[in-house]
Every structure is written in C-alpha cells, then in structure tokens.
Design goal:
By secondary structure, the protein is mainly alpha-helical. The protein contains 9 helices and 2 strands. The radius of gyration is 17 Å and the shape is elongated.
C-alpha cells in the first residue's frame, strides 16, 4: 500500500475518538505529535490501546533500564526504526552507557555490557521464541539476576505493548519525527 493509505492525521482529520489523545500530546509538545501517533490515529482503538499498554508497562516494577532493554529488544527484532531511534534517545536521557545503546541497536551481534540487562534481553527473546512457554531454566536464570515472577510477567506486558507499536509503525511507514497536530 502507498504511504498515503496511513495519513499523518491532524486534529481536524483524525477520527473523533483519537482527537483527545492527540490534543493532550500536542499540548505537551508545542503543537506537534510524533509521526507514529499521527498515523496510528487512523485507528483510535489501536492508538489508545498501545498508549494504555505502554503506560501500564512504564508503571511496572521493572527498573527503567530493564524496561528499555525489553523495548529495544522488540524494536530491533521487529526492525522498527522509529522505536529504535526514540528509545535510544530515552536510554541517553537515562544516562545509559554508549556501549549499552550500541549493543541494543545491533540485535544479537554482541552481548550487553551489563550482565543483568543482558539477562533481560535473553529472557525477552526466550519468551518470544517459546511463545511464552519458557522453561524452568530460563525462569531460574532470570530470577538469579534478581528478577521476580512479577517481573517475568511484566516482560510479557512490554512484549505485548511493543509488538503493537513496532508492527503498526512498520505497517504505516511512520518516519522518525513529529508533525503539526
């Protein structure tokens, strides 16, 4: 499909159920919204569902760097350049080491420089590979790094949220950047 199939919606062109979300984002970002949001507004249910799942993941008990490892693992695995760029920026704002960011941008090519975060990445990939049916070895290895059963389920939440985001961004051809709301 040509990209115009998923237009960069404005507050005037977006379906009514997406406008409140876009207005709130635009108010925080000087009248602009991420291009991914402008295109995702084509389906208010998908936009609002992703944002709700993402907010729930952000409020989980996983520490911020572990959450970003889950997100970047999904983004690189699904080749979502929008998420890779956005979340690489988020990692910078969290003070992540450049080596960590580089390793996360290149899936599977090098282990993460932090053993605990590498464990999150391995666990995320194990959950994906096993469609959730990870074995006791994977769970034990995850727990050995200080993660809990709650954290394991929170990884699943992150996988769900960022499956929606990465696949939708690829489908819509969303570019990195913002557009006028």
């Amino acid at each position: 499909m040509p990209i115009p199939y998923f237009p960069d919606h404005t507050l005037d062109s977006a379906p009514p159920a997406a406008r409140r979300t876009m207005e709130a984002m635009a108010a925080k970002q000087g009248g602009r919204v991420p291009s991914a949001v402008a295109r995702l507004a084509t389906s208010p249910e998908t936009l609002n569902g992703f944002l709700a799942a993402s907010a729930a993941f952000e409020s989980s008990t996983l520490d911020p760097l572990s959450r970003e490892v889950v997100i970047m693992t999904m983004a690189t695995r699904n080749a979502c350049h929008v998420c890779v760029e956005m979340h690489a920026g988020r990692l910078v704002s969290l003070g992540a080491a450049p080596e960590l960011i580089t390793a996360l941008r290149t899936p599977g090519e090098q282990p993460l420089p932090d053993e605990r975060l590498e464990g999150v990445r391995r666990f995320t990939l194990a959950v994906l590979e096993a469609s959730g049916a990870v074995g006791s070895d994977s769970l034990r290895d995850f727990a050995t790094l200080g993660y809990t059963a709650r954290n394991a389920l929170e990884v699943v939440l992150g996988i769900g949220a960022y499956t929606v985001s990465t696949l939708a961004n690829r489908m819509t051809g969303a570019p990195v950047g913002t557009v006028a709301a």
